[in-house]
Amino acid sequence: MASGSFRNGGPKLTSKLDRQPSSAAYSTPKPSSKSRPSAAPASRRGGSVAPAAAHSASKAGGDAGVPGRVRVAVRLRPRNAEEMIADADFADCVELQPELKRLKLRKNNWESETYEFDEVLTEFASQKRVYEVVAKPVVESVLEGYNGTVMAYGQTGTGKTFTLGRLGEEDTAARGIMVRAMEDILGDMSPETDSVSVSYLQLYMESIQDLLVPANDNIAIVEDPKTGDVSLPGVTTVELRDQKSFMELLRLGEAHRFAANTKLNTESSRSHAILIVNVKRSVKGRHDADQSFHGENGTSSTMVTSFRPPIVRKSKLVVVDLAGSERIDKSGSEGHTLEEAKSINLSLSALGKCINALAENSPHVPVRDSKLTRLLRDSFGGSARTSLVVTIGPSPRHRGETSSTIMFGQRAMKVENMVKLKEEFDYKSLCRRLDIELDKLIAENERQRKDFEDEIERIRTEADSRIAEAERSYTNALENERLKCQQDYMDSIKKLEEKWMSDVEKARAEHQDACLEKECNKEAPTSSSDEIAEVRQLLESEKLMRQSSEDEVSNLKSEVSHWKNLEAAGNAEIMKLRKMLDSEANQKQKLEEEIAILKSQLLQLSLQADETRRSLDRGGSGKVLTGFDSLVSQARHSQLRDSANGPKASIAKLFEQVGLQKILSLLESEDPDVRVHAVKVVANLAAEEANQEKIVEAGGLTSLLMLLRSSEDETIRRVAAGAIANLAMNETNQELIMAQGGITLLSITAADAEDPQTLRMVAGAIANLCGNDKLQMRLSGEGGIKALLGMVRCGHPDVLAQVARGIANFAKCESRASTQGNKAGVSLLIEDGALPWIVKNANHEASPIRRHIELALCHLAQHEVNAKDMIREGALWELVRISRDCSREDIRMLAHRTLISSPTFQAELRRLRIEF
Ligand code: ADP
Ligand code: MG
Questions:
Q1: What is the pTM of this model?
Q2: In degrees, to the nearest 5, what angle opens at C-alpha 556 toward C-alphas 550 and 559?
Q3: What is the pLDDT of residues 78-109, one digit of tens each?
Q4: Which class in CATH covers the domain with range 71-285+308-425?
């Protein structure tokens, strides 16, 4: 049977294509809240199950992850002069079918294996086409704010540097990916708001050297424990404005690389060259509708609403020219000592191991094993968009190397990344704008106050002068009137006196005359009575005059009261003016309060800006801190100390500030919201290996198990199960979980839950427990295996993958125990009824599920006691299939060996006349 017909070809190939349509292969991600349920992106790697809150610490927004696979292209180098002669009589070891995106690797004249790539680039592919296919989509997504990586992998001499690093000075069509990428980036920048900076380094024997300033050697990698961002503070970063300076920089880097390698007596093929391009762009016109600043009482101040911090997107393009993939002979035949050989191989083989682990969905990805994998942790299985070009040569003499390069590419195609947008508010520029605006307001306020005071002064003087005038005229009129009345009165009194005197005189004379006449003539009585009538008349007129003068006095009195009224009206006007004055003073006070609020907001924003900048300085761009920045940061340093409660205190900070004990106590809070938040925080902490011991010591495990038992809330149970799954990654914790009855609780949760994400967490936790040798009997005895099997009812592939992983773990431990003589009798898996499900899913279309089950079957088959049951349930057929078709050589061989060495299987195969 020609084995080539099945491996990556035929029917399986089609089903693989169905799941990964290559038409969407290189599209730019558009973050969308619908793109994926928030619990899912955390991890698709076996045991490391992190809950939804893991991604909640977004900055300005747009942080939702978009899933994307690592895209892999293969490029064939044309035969070189030496190969033309040496291989003249032989065919190339590969045959390309670019239109089908397939590559055939010849085994001999009759057999070949077919592999599928995202893109197959023949020996005639132009540099322009290679750039467009491999790197351009990554560059475009970097310009949109996502991190991106482009790397070349392949044997020395197959064209990695040709593909990435050619400057194309003599022939412009020969420009490689680095030069073309920078052209596109610089062409898309707006000089006023955006910036680009570049670092160039090499990694050789686990030491990082700055290619721009080669004296910077042995540079340390710094990882931000909170964000996981990797940075190289010791590396030179040069800000660029034009392509010419970039070309100079590349030339300089190449010269330094050459000199350094000559000095160290190493070949450049043994070092990795890494170009890092940092892009910072400001985003305009977004977020305006939904964001405004609010005054203290929640109402937005009219003067403040127009201030929103501009948003900047920071992204990074990393281009990696990897060391030659051919292995160094450890015997040192190339002139290396054994230690050197180990160290030279370390980074590249660590990269291979990480990719294997990610492709296999393994719970542990050994990123920390080498500098290269630490630097690239974001590029594989992280949040960057990644493109890999694997370069191969045509020579049949290097078939082995070519084959392993192709396999590396194939595995990398299975790695999934979650690309994320990194946006943050530009508080610095908002601060500047607010400063200017505040100054304007202060000046305007000062001007208004001056105008206002002038106006008050004018009104007051005018009122004073009017009052004085009214008073004056009133006093004058009163005085005149008084004098006139007095005069009239005196005159009339005088007249009366005169009149009275003359009357008295007259009466006296007449009396004397009458007496004389009486004496002489004793007659004339009529004249005296006339006289009396006259006096009476006089008295009458006197009365009238007095009456008229009395009227005059009363007139004058009423005039006085009129003037008094006038005076009162004047006083009322003064009162009114005073009131106006008071209200103006109030207004002024309000304005001053508003200024105070603005000032305090400005201060708060400065603090936030500082904090942001501090974290940027820590995780950021090497030596680009400008003089201005450092001055500002010094000036504000003292304020920072008081600002312990930044609005975006991350969970880790919370952990430090609040204390674990306090967080754990919140798990028992009365308030369900508090409980949900607390359990999310604990789950986040539990996802970090460093915290796990502390959480368990502080009783966190017990509290989480309690929650699983007692909580009615699905979210709490899901997140708690996720946290337990994370804690269950370590052996001591696994035993503690068992000791505290955890498996029973997990089984109950497994039986009750319907949400696939909850089931995934629970299955992940049990799967981790299954990997512990000491817990086998108890796991099975307390219903753990049955609980796992019960969860397959949900049918969700992520749940099935965890179940399969658990079964594989269990089978492996059991097999080990049997081999060591610690276990006898039929497998507990078979006793618990797992075999029918195992057999039914052994050829599952999802490769993680299939791999785990295939492994489990091989482990079970190794022990003769299980053979009869396995034959009865049809497992023998699956084993035969695995031994022939499994694409993993180790599993294939294991199945083959197992079948050959089992007398029961052999007998059955003979009985069925199957040749084996
Ligand atoms: P690597 O970096 O993988 O060691 P190089 O890029 O240095 O390989 O390529 C080795 C040689 O092959 C160089 O002389 C290069 O010019 C040539 N070469 C590589 N790829 C091609 C190609 N696609 N077309 C023509 N020549 C190529
Ligand atoms: Mg090279």
A1: 0.47
A2: 145
A3: 999 999 988 888 889 999 999 999 999 998 77
A4: alpha beta
